[in-house]
């Protein structure tokens, strides 16, 4: 190398050092492009209800488009969950999913199937909703009370069809918990998500459904269906006259269909902090609060530390329930 080349190389060294040491050069501010929020179900269910107003608020707060991507497939959201788990941990692929996140890997193990993802691959960002599921039937159904339903199911084991968002999804587990406690056998009819299952109930294809208050309220108000019981420990504000399963004597029947935002577990800390801050603003936005309250599903926000603890505790309870239920189709 001649003298001129040496001088050029030496002059470039400070600039190279600056580029490596200065974050402004090393990494563009987050976000610098569109964000995808995966919803592992079709439109119309609890996760979709949580995602759309939240995404709109995040778009305004972060200054970049936040695109809701419904990636239905597999049982109970497994395909979308797995796609989010495999995404780059850069904050540009997020997941709005339900409590079935923890159930599905356990179901895979129960049936000796390859596990498509593990809960440990995700980092909770914020909880948005946390509602007990409600037992709904068509308005034309003969059952006026929960006891009517149970009595009929005992007379006709395996003949009353109920819909779900897929095997071992939130709606399936809730119904099987109830059926096991009541000593009845129902006919499980899985769909690709809660939206199609709700449509099937309205059309009469199925005769029962466990779903969140926010996805049922308008249909009940319009006289298209009725609700018979509430899986929560307490009555819900949007259905104050609806008794809980506990009130009916089913002490071990309790289930919540929460919706929360997740990123990948190895997401850089500064990006996680930015997302947490943005979500704290988003769930307090007046238009978001109004949307959820109108749907009968008020915000149940938790920041990442509280949500992480909640997910761990709820997941342990649900995994135990799946093991108790065992192999069901």
TrEMBL record:
CDD domains hit by this protein: PBP2_Bug_TTT (cd07012)
Signal peptide (residue range): 1-26
InterPro entries: BUG (IPR005064), Bug_dom1 (IPR042100), TAT_signal (IPR006311)
Keyword NAD: no
Keywords: Receptor, Signal
Keyword Signal: yes
A Pfam family: TctC
Family: Belongs to the UPF0065 (bug) family.
Protein name: Tripartite-type tricarboxylate transporter, receptor component TctC
Species: Bradyrhizobium ottawaense
């Amino acid at each position: 190398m001649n003298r001129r080349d040496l001088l050029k190389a030496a002059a470039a060294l400070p600039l190279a050092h600056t580029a490596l040491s200065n974050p402004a050069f090393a990494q563009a501010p987050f976000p610098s492009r569109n964000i995808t929020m995966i919803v592992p179900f079709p439109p119309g269910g609890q996760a979709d209800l949580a995602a759309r107003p939240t995404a709109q608020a995040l778009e305004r707060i972060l200054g970049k488009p936040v695109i809701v991507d419904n990636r239905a497939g597999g049982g109970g959201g497994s395909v979308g969950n797995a796609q989010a788990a495999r995404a780059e941990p850069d904050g540009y692929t997020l997941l709005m999913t339900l409590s079935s996140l923890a159930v599905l890997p356990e179901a895979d193990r129960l049936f000796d199937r390859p596990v498509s993802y593990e809960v440990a691959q995700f980092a909770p960002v914020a909880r948005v909703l946390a509602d007990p599921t409600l037992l709904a039937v068509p308005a034309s159904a003969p059952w006026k009370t929960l006891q009517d339903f149970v009595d009929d199911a005992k007379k006709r084991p395996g003949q009353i069809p109920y819909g779900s968002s897929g095997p071992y999804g939130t709606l399936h587990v809730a119904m099987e918990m109830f059926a096991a406690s009541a000593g009845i056998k129902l006919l499980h009819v899985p769909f690709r998500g809660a939206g199609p299952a709700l449509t099937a109930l309205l059309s009469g294809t199925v005769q029962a459904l466990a779903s969140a208050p926010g996805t049922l309220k308008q249909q009940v108000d319009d006289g298209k269906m009725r609700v018979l019981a509430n899986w929560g420990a307490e009555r819900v504000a949007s259905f104050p006259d609806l008794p809980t399963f506990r009130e009916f004597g089913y002490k071990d029947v309790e289930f919540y269909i929460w919706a929360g935002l997740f990123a990948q577990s190895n997401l850089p800390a500064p990006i996680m902090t930015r997302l947490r801050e943005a979500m704290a603003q988003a769930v307090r936005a007046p238009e978001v609060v109004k949307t959820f309250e109108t749907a009968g599903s008020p915000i149940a926000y938790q920041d990442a530390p509280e949500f992480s603890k909640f997910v761990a505790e709820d997941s342990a309870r649900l995994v135990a329930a799946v093991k108790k239920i065992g192999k069901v189709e």
